[in-house]
Amino acid sequence: MTKRPVDVRERVRQEMVADPRVVEAVVAAVHEQVPAYAALDDSRLPEVRAIAAWGLERLLHLWATDAGLGPSDLRRFRGIAAARAADGRPVRAVLRAYRVAATVLTDEIAARAPGLTATDALALTRMLLTALDTLSEEMATAYAATSEDLTADRDRALRLLLDDLIAGRHATAGALTDRAARLGVQLPGPACLLVAEPAGPDRPDMTHDVVTALLDALGTTGAPDVTSPTTVRGHRAVLLLPAAAAARAGTALRALDLRGCAITAESPDRIAVAHRLAADALDTAPGHAYRGGRLLTDADAHVLALLGGHPAAPPDTIARLVLGPLTDPGQGHLLAALTAYLDTGSANAAARELHLHAQSLRYRLRRIRELTDRDPRDAWQRLTLDIARTIRP
């Protein structure tokens, strides 16, 4: 007896759902063919894979049962669209990803062609066309509504934007620019990511009032053409500022009894990297690194990451961040003075080693402080300088 079409389709459905290679084929095709997905880092792929697995199972079920999308399916697709509106991934890219997935689904079913009939093929075509048309309308509507809500609540939208940057949800600078444009804002560029926390042993949750006071102290509210998003994460404030604000950050933090870490060497589309560096630095920096309320910088953060066994940059990059102009060919005499001072432990001994007058050596040490903003006499800063000159190629 010939099996009914739905029985054959159910067998194919079970085979495909049980085969993890089908989902991987969908994810690979979307990653390759849709630019907005091609730029996603590895941290975002599990979400794409989970949605692909769910969508594959649902579409195969609809085909096997000659059914249509139900209310729960539509709610799920609307939720996906709202999430994409919040993280700034264009709706046209999302819908294209579904079309690519539908093509892969068709190819995978065709590979299991024995036993399938023209009726099965027509049912598959009808199901895919109907499903894609319905979900496109539902997702476009939900995406537009969420975008409108976010734009209307500007402060919340900016917090969500920075939260998404910290989570690494913007894969490209272009996607970030598009989202900022929809909000009608211009983000700082070049930028400084400042992570701040209470300086004392007690770490109460950060409040938005303190964040606002910090913004005022930094003077960023006087720059109407640039918007500085802020957010709160537990006892810490996170602020995306113009790079020039880093020079005022130490004073502003001390005035509010805060301490912090400012990262200026990462671009806005790498805010996730900058935040991880700053947060880890605040977690691991010794107390004397904040001597006089000193603000931690890129150099401090990278040295701490190196000491923790998880460097975030190559050794030569870390050395340049710490030593600054001392790595230039024309500053070899200053680097030699620093090396002698670190090796001998005193200006007089270093001067003797270099056959210099002690006053000349001290002048060079002053120049080193001016050029690097690091004092070799300070324990923490001396350590960072020593590490940098050691790992320098």
Q: H/E element string? A: HHHHHHHHHEHEEHEHHHHHHH
Number of strands: 4
Report the sheet-strand fraction. Answer: 5-15%
What is the overall pLDDT average?
Answer: 88
Largest sheet: 4 strands, antiparallel
Stated plainly, the CATH topology of the largest domain is called: Globin-like
Order the strands across the largest sheet as they lie in space: 2-3-1-4
Q: Compute the number of helices.
A: 18
Structure report:
- This protein has 393 residues and is an alpha+beta fold.
- The chain folds into three domains: 5-152, Globin-like; 186-309; 325-391, PucR C-terminal helix-turn-helix domain (Arc Repressor Mutant, subunit A), CATH 1.10.10.2840.
- Helix content is 64%, strand content 6%.
- The protein has helices spanning 5-18, 20-33, 35-38, 45-65, 71-87, 91-110, 118-152, 154-166, 173-183, 208-218, 246-255, 271-284, 298-307, 315-323, 332-344, 347-354, 358-372, 379-391, and strands at residues 191-198, 230-233, 236-242, 258-263.
- The protein has a four-stranded antiparallel sheet with strand order 2-3-1-4, sandwiched between helices.
- The chain is elongated.
- The model has no long low-confidence stretch (mean pLDDT 88).
